[in-house]
């Protein structure tokens, strides 16, 4: 599912994907990080890093 979301976002010229996990949901946070998401306020994965 996450790969589909990523490919959909790329095809539609999205700037980033944003995910939210509760502060105590360490399993979800670790999973997002393992997929390359960066923790800010939530988790964000940049689609086109050159624009940022």
Supply database-style keywords.
52 residues; elongated; 2 helices; 3-stranded antiparallel β-sheet
Strands, helices and their partners?
Elements: H1 2-11, E1 16-19, H2 26-34, E2 38-39, E3 43-46
Antiparallel strand pairs: 1-3, 2-3
Give a quick summary of the entry.
The protein is α+β, with helices and mostly antiparallel strands. 37% of the residues lie in helices and 19% in strands. It has a three-stranded antiparallel β-sheet, with helices on one face.
Multimeric status of the protein: single chain
How many distinct beta strands?
Answer: 3
Give the percentage of residues in beta strands. Answer: 15-25%
- In total, how many domains does the architecture comprise? 1
Helix content: 25-40%
Q: Nearest-angstrom radius of gyration?
A: 11 Å
Run of helices and strands: HEHEE
Could you tell me how far the N terminus lies from the C terminus, measured between alpha carbons in angstroms?
25 Å
Q: Provide the structure class.
A: alpha+beta
**Main β-sheet, in a few words?**
3 strands, antiparallel
Number of helices: 2
Provide the residue-averaged pLDDT.
Answer: 85
* Low confidence ranges: none
Choose one word for the global shape: elongated
């Amino acid at each position: 599912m996450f790969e589909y979301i990523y490919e959909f976002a790329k095809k539609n010229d999205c700037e980033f994907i944003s995910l939210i996990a509760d502060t105590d949901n360490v399993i979800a946070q670790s999973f997002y990080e393992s997929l390359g998401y960066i923790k800010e306020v939530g988790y964000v994965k940049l689609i086109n890093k050159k624009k940022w």
